[in-house]
Structure formats: C-alpha cells, structure tokens
Amino acid sequence: MIKSQPPVRGDLYYDTDTHVWAERAASGSIRVGLDPLGAETSGDIVAVSFAADGTRVRRGEAFGSLEAAKFVGPLIAPVSGVIRAHNADALARPGLINRDPFGAWLIELEPGDPAELASLLTGDAEVSAWFERERDRYRQKGMLAP
Amino acid sequence: MLRVVDAGDTCAARSQALWHGIASAMTAADAPVLSLCRPSAPYVCLGYHCNVEEIDRDVCRREGVAVLRRQIGGGPVWIDSDQLFFQITVPWQQAPARVDELYERLLGPAVEAFRELGLDASLRGVNDIAIGDRKISGTGAGRIGDGVTVVGNLLYRFPHERMATILAVPSDGARAECLRLMRHRVTSMETEGMARPADADVKRALVSAYARALGLSPTFSVLTAAEEGAIACWEARVAEPDWVAGPRRPTAQLRQVKICADVFVVAGATGEVVVEASLVDGKFDRVQIDGVGSAARRIEAAIVVQELAALPAALGEFGADGARVLELLSSARRIA
Question: Is the pTM of this model over 0.90?
Fold first, then answer.
C-alpha cells in the first residue's frame, strides 16, 4: 500500500491509460517515465528492460518491460519516436522508480510527430483533477491506502 | 463462458508456447481461457528478465536439457513431466491493475483446487502456493499482447538436486545452501506423503474451481486458428538463441537465488571480500565472509538474525571491512 505520494507535476504530459509521463526537454527530445500511481500499482519493481537505443517505437507500442512480483508487463510509449537514451540508473536499480517516479526517468525519445504530445493530458488543474479521480478510483478498489 | 483448452502432454517448447500464443491471440471480447498441459521432457526455463548466466549452460548441454525463456517473471526453474501446468488467461481489461490483487483473484481458485485434492494449501506471500511454509507451485504472470496470463503448476515430485545442479553460483557452498533451503522450502505431493494423483483429477478440480470463482460455465474447446498461428510463432521463439539470451540487463554485483517467497541465497565479491549468505523470512540465516582477516567471524555473528535494513547499524563498528560487506549485501534486490 502506498504511504505517501510525491506531488503530481502539472508541467508534464500524461498518457492516462498507461500512467506514463512525458516531458519535453530543451533539446527537443521527450523524456519518458512511470507516474506515481503506475509505479505504486505495479508493486515493488525488481527489473526493467528497454529496447535498444536507436529503436523506433510507435505511440502505443512497448518500448520495454517492467517486472514486479514475477509479473512482467509492457512499458508503453506515450508518443512515437526513436529511442536516443535510457536511464542506466533505473536499469541497474529499478527500485528507484518506486521511490522517485518523476526522477527515475526511463528513456529519451526523439519524437517522430511533435503534435502527439498535445494529445496527452497536461496542465496543473487538469492533471490534478485526473490524478485525484484516479487515486479515488484505486482507493475504492482497495488498491491504495486510505 | 470459461474456455478450457486441455493440451495434454506436450513437448517443452509447446508447453510454453501454448499460453503465450493464447494470450497473444486474445482480444477484449474473448472469454477467459484456462489452459492445461504437462511437459513430456525436462527443460530449464528462464524468467523474462533473468540473466542467462544464472544457469550453468554446460550442465544443461551435458544433460541434454533444453533452455527456454518465458515472457513472465521470476528466476530459472526446472520443469519436467512431474509437474502439471495450468494457465488462466483473461483480456487485460478484465485483469486487476494491481499485481497482488491479480494473483489473489487468479491463483485463489488453484488454492481451492489443491485443497480439494487433499493438500492444506494457501497463498503465501504475493504469489506462492504453499503447504505451510513450503512452496508446492511455481507461479508467475505477465501481459502478452492483449491477454494477461497467470501461470502455475502442481509439483507431483521435484528433483531438488537437479535444480541445484543447473544453477550457476559462485561456489559449492552457495550451491549446497540453495539445495538445503530448497529441500526445506520447496515441497511436492510426494514429499508431503501423498499419492500421485491422476492428471484428470487435478484438471477436474482446477476447471471446477476456476469456473466457480469466475462465475462462468466451463466449455472444453480446441484452439482457434488465430491461437494455433500464434502458438506456432511462440514455439519457435521460446528457444531462439537471441530470445534465450534475453533483454539487455546490467550484471548484478551480487548473485541472488530465490528459493521461494522470502527465502534467498546471495553470494558475491567486491575486491577481496567474499560474502555468501541466506535470507530466510526477512532475516539473515547463515553467513560466510572471507577476505576481511580476523574480523570475519565477528562480522558474521553481527549479521546473523538481522534484517537487511538493520545492517548499517550492525556493521557500523567494523569500519572499512564492514562497509564493504554492507555495500555487497545492500545490493540484494527485493524479489517478491
């Protein structure tokens, strides 16, 4: 059960189906990670793997995998692009994703279609409202501590 | 409807491909599928993120044992015809988002079936089916395509020695400790003093328990053309060298073997310091340290019965030697 969640960040872009966040860097690349609810509902993450740098992924396709409690699930790209980098720290110490989901980014993409980012949820008010709804939904299902 | 696919006795690759293919072919509109099979030949199966170096491939080659990789989690496992496998696959939209809830809902019926067979089974930890503290079923789960599959087996008999032999561990001592703990904590119907059941009776109990738990009527079914196609692809893939090599992962400083929920053997070295230890129910059980001179036995005594989280305090008085041991043991991953 979750004890405390980091404050949600309204400056990021969220895929509301997969709980993956995206952040536009000054260089134009897109940094991608798992949001706190995605990390929490996964359980204790013990392994992640990523497609090789240089791999082209389309929005909605897996760019890697995550393992917790012997469950392996796909990490889904929120936007299309070419993987330019991955976070070696998260790869070596996947527990970082549980501890610091906004800090422990996973991959950086060179976006194929910058307009795709606009279809994701962003903005302080919108993100906070969605996050609260999701948190309530998970709590009602007994998936988060009250 | 609960579709039941009984594949009977299958070769090693098909015993894995069966449920990978069923999950791959699943769509949101499909009924859950309970698939059943018993591998006809022994093989070693690696969890998706498991490093291939965790097994001794020379031993596998020498014994003619195939090595496959599955797209669910966990470590390397020994599989043979003394294990009956069940797999429940549901559209991912119907699966609980939370992993512990997924296991509770989709392994709970197997626990009921085992109890019907006379075993005093319960769910232990997140995903072990156990008799007391002894695991009697290897389990795992994953999302493959649009299907989520929870896999389990019932161990009729388990060859602890052969399993210990195929593990790549740094020393004979670590292997002996793996074997000791496996004998204590991995059981089978034979070890529990029960007669080997007929496969048909186990399958009947599983089908009935899953149908009851899911509130669905069981219908025995053949594979669809889409499933057959997907299974054929997976049958080739699970043994492909590139697939068996696994995803790119960093090499861990500490070798960690999971015996069952909350039981691990860890072994590793940093510089001249060599550490081998076992963790049982959250506490260090046996510890052996070399390469720190005369302090070794005192450091071992300070670690035994401690929890991982208590090590910094327990090792504080041992200066640089304690710090090196702490660095090694702190890299132990938590594997549920």
Answer: yes
